[in-house]
Design goal:
- The protein has about 140 residues and is an alpha+beta fold.
- The chain has a single domain, classed as Alpha-Beta Plaits, CATH 3.30.70.1290.
- Helices cover about 35% and strands about 20% of the residues.
- The chain contains 3 helices and 6 strands, in the order E-E-E-H-E-E-H-E-H.
- The chain has helices at about 30-45, 75-90, 120-125, and strands spanning about 5, 10, 15-20, 50-60, 60-65, 110-115.
- Strands 4-5-3-6 form a 4-stranded antiparallel β-sheet, sandwiched between helices. Strands 1-2 form a two-stranded antiparallel ribbon.
């Protein structure tokens, strides 16, 4: 049980494979954005007590293996990460001071699955999405 995390009244090991896409699946994750989005995701996850074990951005979607404490619903963490990262992207890369109503960067849905004890195979899958390109790893 040494690999388990703990909260006040529980020991936990909750890992998820998470995939989400930009709006209309446009190939928006290129260049500087692709390289700098990883630290944005890691910072946002850390704010909620989560840890991104592995992550990779491809031109039209994001894969990550993330540990989420059981006190949070997966949907709330995904909503937080997608919402706050969209605001940061709008400010930093689109040069907007405000994220105006009606604008969004990410599509509404996401795919998630529990990892269980197969974390190494999931991390390997995420890591080698694009074997020749390490630009999107975070």
């Amino acid at each position: 049980m040494s690999d388990y995390n703990s909260l006040a009244h529980s020991r936990w090991d909750c890992k998820y494979h998470l995939v989400f896409v930009p709006k209309k699946r446009r190939k928006l994750l290129f260049g500087n954005l692709r390289k700098e989005i990883g630290p944005i995701f890691r910072d946002l996850a850390q704010q909620k007590g989560c840890e991104i074990l592995e992550g990779h951005t491809l031109p039209d979607h994001v894969h990550m293996c993330i540990k989420i404490p059981p006190k949070y619903a997966v949907s709330s963490i995904v909503g937080f990460i997608k919402g706050k990262s969209a605001i940061m992207i709008a400010r930093k890369f689109l040069k907007k001071e405000r994220n105006f109503l009606g604008e969004s960067f990410w599509a509404r849905g996401y795919a998630v699955s529990t990892v269980g004890f197969e974390v190494e195979s999931i991390k390997h899958y995420i890591r080698y999405q694009e074997a020749a390109d390490d630009a999107g790893r975070f």
